Amino acid sequence: MHIKNNIIIFFSVTAIFSALFVNFIVIKSFTMIDINFISNMKEIYFDNKDIDENLYKEISGLLNSGNSNAFKKLLEDVGNPVSQFYGFAGFMKSNKITAIEYLKSGIMESPKKVKIIINKTPLNTTLGYAILLLLNKNPDWLATQLNDEFIRLTDKIILNIYNKGELSSNPDYKNQLVSMIQNKYPSIASDIINDFVSTKNIFDMSINEKKDVSMLLKMIDDQSRTKIIVSLLKEKDESILLNTLNFINTDDNTTINKMLDDMIQTTSYSDSVKRLLLNKYALTNKGQSLPKLIKFMLQNDTNHSLILEAIQVFEKYGDDSYWAFLTRYLGGQYSVEINNRVLTAITNISWKSNPDNVYSTLIFTIRRSNFSTAILAINFYIKNNISSNQSIILTRLRELDNDDIKKTALKYIEQFNITSATDIIINLSKDGNSEIKNAAIKLAGKLNIPL
């Protein structure tokens, strides 16, 4: 019996020590995950496409390890904001409760200087801004989405940061913070905007307060909305105007439409405001906006980006009655991009209702426009299987000035089996571009043209 008890004790002790040994190995391997590579990094990366593949594997391996000891050690490296960022990101993936403790300790307000890379673009900023950006943007490879519990447990922290006056000196941080509040903390947004509206007249607010209101407009009740939007649209500050215009939609009333109508006739705004203004004016007035937009375009006749934007509005809401006006933008004084855009708009709005207008536009374009727009016109014939005007088209195609027009020539000739274009095919069968040369030889065989 004594021997039996000793044997049982022996195996029990052996089992205990084996378990402890295995546990030690697991803990050791878990604790000893490599974090040294983070210490050598000089930038924070938000887009995994900007990172070397091997570095990406190392970072994602660390963040997905759930290794709290490693994350804590990175956060304790107070002299290295890059290490602290990735330590916080690790907790945002595996233990948000711990991440919240670091938010309470002020990591989102850290002034430590750091460089971040977003879409291959470097930005010199602070660790606090990088943490804020992480919470607001939530790149999948860096952090998991903010859940309801996280929002509930951090709303007072976020509101406290918002209420601190020193944020006014960092507009990028303030804008990012308000954006996050608007998108992820609706209760805070509602409290902020209601406090503004109930305690202050919009006319008595500071510029910074008006900026905040303009970013939180979607939280304003319908009763106050019109008055506040109209007031903000009278401001000269570009960010206020852009924020306010962005919130205007098709349901907005005639008072706001009247304000937009007055604004569209003003020339003093920046190009960014003008582009958004013309789109919102068209959105709320549809086809009725176009007569005013004609005047707007003539006032900005040398502004490339505005003309492009306006042409797209005409394409969306216009009809054939605007054909004559739009043809002016086929002129050589305008860019190739404008020529191409307006030709597309004309064919889209006039082809079904007045094909004769489209034909005359296409012929003018093929005869007189730049090669790019002429090719666009010829491709319209090909796409719609229109075999008319072949002599005019072949005359332009015979110029063969670049590879694009050469390829278009072969495509056009093959589409309509044009045997009278022998000279073009023979010329292209000797072309220096092997792709064009081989296509021409193949087409010659198809049309029984001897080379």
How would you explain this protein's 3D organization?
The chain has 451 residues and is mostly helical. Among the domains are: 1-28; 31-145, no CATH class. It is 66% helix and 3% strand. It has helices spanning 2-31, 36-39, 53-63, 68-75, 81-94, 96-104, 127-137, 148-163, 171-184, 186-199, 207-215, 222-232, 238-246, 254-263, 271-285, 290-299, 304-317, 323-327, 336-350, 355-368, 371-383, 390-397, 403-416, 422-428, 434-446, and strands spanning 43-45, 113-118, 121-126. Strands 1-2-3 form a three-stranded mixed beta sheet. Residues 4-31 have low confidence and may be disordered.
Task: Based on the model shown, name its key terms.
3 strands; 451 residues
Mean pLDDT equals 89
Gap between N and C termini, in Å? 109 Å
Low-confidence stretches: 4-31
Cα gyration radius (Å): 33 Å
Strand content: under 5%
Number of strands: 3
SSE-based structural type: mainly alpha
Largest sheet: 3 strands, mixed
The number of distinct helices, counting runs of at least 4 residues, comes to: 25
Strand order of the largest sheet: 1-2-3
How helical, in percent, are the residues?
55-70%
What's the shape?
A: flat
Succession of helices and strands: HHEHHHHEEHHHHHHHHHHHHHHHHHHH
Topology:
Elements: H1 2-31, H2 36-39, E1 43-45, H3 53-63, H4 68-75, H5 81-94, H6 96-104, E2 113-118, E3 121-126, H7 127-137, H8 148-163, H9 171-184, H10 186-199, H11 207-215, H12 222-232, H13 238-246, H14 254-263, H15 271-285, H16 290-299, H17 304-317, H18 323-327, H19 336-350, H20 355-368, H21 371-383, H22 390-397, H23 403-416, H24 422-428, H25 434-446
Parallel strand pairs: 1-2
Antiparallel strand pairs: 2-3
